[in-house]
Design a protein that fits this description.
The complex is a heterodimer of chains A (326) and B (325). Chain A is of the alpha/beta class and 326 residues long. In chain A, 39% of the residues lie in helices and 21% in strands. In chain A, strand 10, helix 8 and strand 11 (231-235) form a beta-alpha-beta unit. The chains are: A alpha/beta (326), B alpha/beta (325).
Chain lengths: 326, 325
């Protein structure tokens, strides 16, 4: 099999090109996504290749961007909307929750829209360019939430999201855009929605995580070897619907669970995971479920503050040791 | 001024019939509400029937509609049956949303009618996208989006109108200025003299119309839609009218001055049109009475049938949250 190395951002761009090529009903729009190629260059070259009709810029109107996408989707198109930053999507939440999320249930009309939303911190973006809001979307009925951690998943999951008949929030971590590289097959392979992946086997504990924290968790698991701990790392990849069976399977093997995410602690996605694990796997646990998350504060700007705010491999390792030695 | 004879008599009778069916349907809904047979609220468009009837009458099959709260005549004008309306209000499994939603939240996308959500303005960008889609497919579609005076204060109104203007999407943003947003009068809602004064700010045109005069509104809408098909772009159309009931039947509309009510009572859209048709010899009083009797009979049969139909099975609660891949 022929392989080549791509970044996470390349994975997204390759998939967008693939989707535009294979389906005329796929269109891409958002702020500065045309000739400029998007704030992060995920759509670079696509307007030139597929024309202004398929890839175009819009006014700064997050609500109209999502509302029109719903309208286009109801008429058979598969719009992919780029939110310049996930943070700005709060201007349009009613379209996700109330309009797109309920439409099939109420009327039987499917709404195949995909919203690409760059999220996450670690680069001095401050309170309004760094947010992790996955739990807000996971709370909404009728919505699917995808969040890849690797270039191959970024490429393959986006394809599954766009071809799915439901509204999909596709979260892409900005820190990973250029920091993560991977050898991928030249041949394009979609990644199924709702299937987690064990990135590292282990038997002493499992870290259940997603997004940028997969990489911090892998680093922490490597360091844990020095403490004679053998730690599994599970990348959920899809947050809604999440792979509960795989999680319970991992808990059965390790009996100890650490949940790690970059978003806020209270009512964060980890709370849902912990509740589900206790409901389904209480008898499997040898220790309380630990969580490493951001604290309940706005995302701070200064590096000293953001380092204190954002989970990293050191914080994860410390929690792992406590968990395993419980 | 266009002559009433320039349009087929059947068209005028059809518009009038839509208005009468809507009025009788809503009067029955009010009774059912007070009889405790309707769970939830009843929101009517009584006094505003001309707007939906005339504008759907002037539209074509490929056109799209985003009805709002007072849009019973949009629904009936685009083919929703009176029976379907009762099923919806009564939460019957046979209705357009099968009991998943109630009262005004229904539509018929096959007939080009979107189903509104309660957030005012939220359907405006949706219909803009829908019309963009149909035009991309080569269909000569235009859209009519209905919004109240209150709804023009939302962010979605602004975003949708501007978006449509930027992309030359032919949508008529039809403002039913019925003078009150729930209980708040227009004097406390905006500072421009007329809402269409905003049009120039979007680089588009704005028109005013008497929302209680179906004949004149039909002519104006026909002309506007024909022009938008030739030169695709959005515009604002502000229709003067008055809500003759409360926001819903739970609301006695104590805040609407009686003198204002009186001004519009004598301009009841159904009476205005009947008078016009009789005066211009399009129809006789006896013919119009016959239409009203047919509508009454249809409404009576429909609500009784809907009452007898099954309610949803609780076991279906989770069906259809997601579309199947």
């Amino acid at each position: 099999m022929r392989m080549h190395e791509i970044t996470y951002l390349d994975g997204i761009c390759q998939c967008l090109r693939q989707l535009l090529g294979e389906d005329d009903d796929v269109i891409i729009y958002g702020q500065d996504v045309g000739a400029f190629g998007g704030a992060f260059k995920a759509t670079l070259g696509l307007q030139e290749e597929f024309g202004k009709d398929r890839v175009f810029d819009t006014p700064i109107s997050e609500s109209a961007m999502l509302g029109t996408a719903i309208g286009l989707a109801t008429q058979g198109f598969r719009p992919i909307v780029e939110m310049q930053f996930l943070d700005f999507m709060t201007n349009a939440l009613h379209h996700v929750l109330n309009n797109a999320g309920t439409m099939h249930y109420r009327t039987g009309t499917a709404v195949p829209i995909t919203v690409r939303a760059p999220c996450g911190g670690g680069f001095g973006g401050g309170p309004f360019h760094s947010e992790e809001l996955e739990s807000i979307f996971c709370h909404m009925p009728g919505i699917k939430v995808l969040y890849p951690a690797f270039p191959s998943d970024a490429r393959g999951l986006l394809h599954s999201g766009v071809t799915d008949p439901n509204p999909v929030i596709y979260l892409e971590n900005k820190y990973l855009y250029r920091h993560v590289k991977e050898l991928v097959p030249d041949k394009f392979e979609p990644i199924p929605i709702g299937v987690a992946r064990i990135c590292r086997p282990g038997k002493d504990a499992v870290i259940i995580t997603y997004g940028a924290m997969v990489h911090e968790s892998l680093k922490a698991a490597e360091q844990a070897v020095n403490h004679d701990h053998d730690v599994m790392v599970m990348d959920l990849r899809t947050l809604k619907p999440y792979d509960a069976d795989a999680i319970i399977g991992a808990v059965a093997v390790t009996n100890r669970v650490l949940v790690v995410h970059e978003g806020w602690r209270s009512c964060g996605f980890g709370a849902e995971l912990a509740a589900m694990i206790v409901e389904r796997g209480f008898h499997l646990l040898d220790a309380p479920i630990y969580r490493v998350t951001a604290p309940d504060s706005p995302v701070p700007f200064a590096p000293e503050l953001e380092d204190a705010y954002r989970p990293n491999h050191n914080k994860i390792l410390q929690a792992l040791i406590e968990l395993i030695e419980y | 001024m266009l002559q009433i004879e320039s349009v087929e008599r059947s068209q005028w009778l059809s518009i009038l019939r839509t208005m009468v069916r809507a009025r009788l349907t809503e009067e029955r809904l009010i009774r059912l509400y007070h009889q405790g047979k309707i769970f939830g609220g009843v929101y009517t468009g009584i006094g505003q029937e001309a707007i939906g009837a005339a504008t759907t009458g002037a539209a074509q099959a490929q056109d799209l509609f985003a009805p709002c709260i007072r849009s019973m005549t949009v629904h009936l004008g685009r083919g929703t049956t009176v029976l379907g309306v009762f099923r919806q209000y009564l939460g019957r499994v046979t209705g357009p949303t099968g009991g998943r939603d109630g009262n005004v939240h229904y539509g018929n996308l096959e007939a080009g009618v979107y189903t509104m959500i309660s957030h005012l303005g939220a359907m405006l960008p949706v219909i803009v996208g829908g019309v963009m889609a149909r035009r991309r497919r080569g269909q000569d579609a235009v859209g009519i989006a209905y919004i109240g005076d209150g709804g023009t204060s939302t962010g979605d109104f602004h975003e949708a109108v501007n978006f449509a203007a930027v992309f030359n999407v032919p949508v008529v943003f039809l403002i039913e200025n019925n003078k009150f947003a729930y209980s708040t009068p227009i004097s406390e809602q905006f500072k421009c003299e007329r809402l269409i004064d905003r049009a120039s700010g979007y680089g588009i045109e704005g028109y005013e119309a008497d929302g209680n005069d179906a004949v004149t509104l039909y002519f104006l809408t026909s002309e506007i839609l024909e022009r938008l098909r030739r030169e695709p772009k959005p515009l604002l159309l502000e229709c003067d009218t008055l809500r003759m009931r409360g926001h819903g039947e739970h609301d006695a509309a104590s805040y609407i001055p009686e003198s204002l009510m009186d001004t519009y009572k004598i301009r009841d859209p159904i009476e205005v049109m009947k008078k016009r048709l009789i005066e211009t010899d399009v129809a006789t009083e006896a013919e119009l009475d016959a239409i009203a009797n047919e509508c009454r009979s249809e409404v009576n049969t429909a609500y009784q049938q809907a009452l007898a139909e099954p309610r949803p099975d609780p076991g279906t609660l989770l069906d259809g949250v997601y579309a199947n891949a």
